Amino acid sequence: MNYWNPEIETMSRDALTELQNGRLKKALAHAYKNCKPYRAKMESAGMEPGDIKGIDDLWKLPMTVKNDLRDSYPYGMFAVPMKDVVRIHASSGTTGKQTVVGYTAGDIAIWGECMARCLTMAGATSEDIVHVSYGYGLFTGGLGGHIGGETIGAATIPASTGNTKRQLQMFTDFGSTVLLCTPSYAMHLGDAVMEAGIRDQIKLRVGVFGAEPWTEEMRDEIESRLGVRAHDIYGLSEVMGPGVSCDCGERKGLHVMEDHFLVEIVDPATGKPVPDGTPGELVFTCVTKEALPLIRYNTRDICTIDRSPCACGRNLTRMGKITGRTDDMLIIRGVNVFPSQVESVLLGTAGVAPYYRLVVDRVNNLDTLEIQVEMTEGLFSDEERRIESLVRRIEKDVLSTLGISAKVTMVSHGTIERFEGKAKRVLDKR
Fold this sequence. Notes:
Layout: H1 6-9, H2 13-34, H3 36-44, H4 66-71, E1 87-90, E2 100-103, H5 105-121, E3 129-132, H6 140-151, E4 155-157, H7 164-174, E5 178-181, H8 183-196, E6 206-209, H9 216-226, E7 229-236, E8 241-247, E9 254-256, E10 261-266, E11 280-286, E12 297-303, E13 305-306, E14 318-319, E15 324-325, E16 330-332, E17 335-337, H10 339-347, E18 352-363, E19 366-375, H11 377-380, H12 384-402, E20 407-411, E21 426-428
Parallel strand pairs: 3-4, 3-5, 5-6, 6-7, 18-21, 19-20
Antiparallel strand pairs: 1-2, 7-8, 8-9, 9-14, 10-11, 11-12, 12-15, 13-14, 16-17, 18-19
Helix pairs in contact: 2-3, 5-6, 8-9, 10-12
């Protein structure tokens, strides 16, 4: 089995709970003493750290949301002096102020540890050449992936995003064996590899992809193009960056690094915890962070959790794949729609490329949904009758999956914009 830290990764649930209880108490005391917004939240709720005896009391604490970080921009939620902050990142949000994240040297060390666990469970070793095609800069992806590669002792290439032709040259010349990037960019790189005819010249064997939701069908497509075994990694800048969780060789959920991040699923309507296996909003409490404590941070990501032991030997709780977000979920004619649902339909349909755009509009006070789908080059030159038949089939499958009708428009190969970072799938004109 591939373990980076077997003592923690295979720890019994009782021992892990004891560790979490102790760390939670310290984290609450640290936040209450050193972070004014948290002290105000707890006092407003009539609470103090001593009221929380352990993780069973976690639900009693008030939640934190992204606006709390924006309202304290830039450093109002930091709990250490700036002289102790060694790194600053910020979210890439398109609305409102950025959320600014600080790290102490201790926080950076924990980040490296978590990323090392993730890369190891995906099958990477010190013998690999890790090719990081996440963006470097304020976004946490590039430097997060980089610290993981260096922590396991692998040669690590800070390729960043963009210049796809150069990426392919590095694949062949540098002998990259592990690729880290967004799944949408992995798909784009896979297409470029096939078009360049160099599939037999690259040595990639493992892919670790995250920063946006993706489906099992998309995993299959990436694997067929790049010849890798694709793994899902999860993280967000507020909590740490990539490395909060990752799937192992079983690929039946993403193991959460629970000695550092307590995980809950709550009902989006009530905010109350739901039973394991029930979909809801993903909430994290960071129990070892120094610079930016986070208590019950609601990510707005939708998924499930499974606390049963995994066949890989790890006892760490597993997250299901993220199926969408409650704050960018589309509501069309009263129906909740996630782009990942449409993606699942399209990737199971022969003749279409894995690139699409959802165009939402309102005509005569009625919401409309158009799905623009790229045709493969072979289909583009095919007879019109076959294309019309495919459109009707997709419209039928979308209706069955979403419960609402949508207009499907076929567009020529290369029409939909390719993204090096997070893919932008939705154009909402309402």
